[in-house]
Amino acid sequence: MSTLDLTESEFAELDELLATTPAPLQALDASMLDGYLCGVLVQPRLIEIDEWLPNIFDYDGGVLPEEVDATWLARIRELAERRHGALNRAMVEDGWFDPVVLDLEEPAEGSAEAAPAVEEEAPSDPDEAAARATYDSMSLISRTLMPWVAGFQHAALCFPELSEMDDDAVMAALARLYRHLPAETPEEKEVVATLDREHPLKDLDDAIEELVVTVADLCDLTQTQRYHVETLRREGPKLGRNDPCHCGSGRKYKQCHGAN
What we know:
Pfam families: SEC-C (PF02810), UPF0149 (PF03695). With 260 residues, the chain is mainly α. It is built from nine helices and no strands.
């Protein structure tokens, strides 16, 4: 597999290809995919492409139809696999990578966007209204990073081994990432408030640096488990060359099953 990273035009192509995923599936966009791939890479086990690729086509676990365009699918696979390889190489060799983050801009004071002429209609669904209120209460930094982090969380939900690790350092790292997601429970709100108080973020560049360092930390924390190789153990003691053969022939092992 090539580890040559995608160009800007290839990132745009990948985003457009994912956007044409057959309805009703809701595929990840390029930023969410980037976070998802990092979430795959820091798992405590190696995950092959045939296992992680299907999850990028629907956030809720839907499956692609069998009659999907093979050329379309092959191109998405090629681009996604290249980005996966490039991210892996960057983490291992440099301890750093450049995440795909779309920079949102705060509307200028007094602009049409900042003061729309027509007030938006409030959502009729109470849950939707609550979600919108939670989103609006988030900082611009967190709203900017939210798609990337949502993609990372998608990987953590698809492959729960990372979240189930009994490791305080892993849990603390996940909290530093998830501070950029909407806090729904009192516990989540308290965690975000604590992080904002004890580890405030100056600006978007500062937040991106913390995000990258946190993912690199997770990569290091799970490396031992990810590359652990099980050693086969014998049920009984090893036979010596001059011991009776285990087959019961009465001959020495070296003259029976141990013969070359």
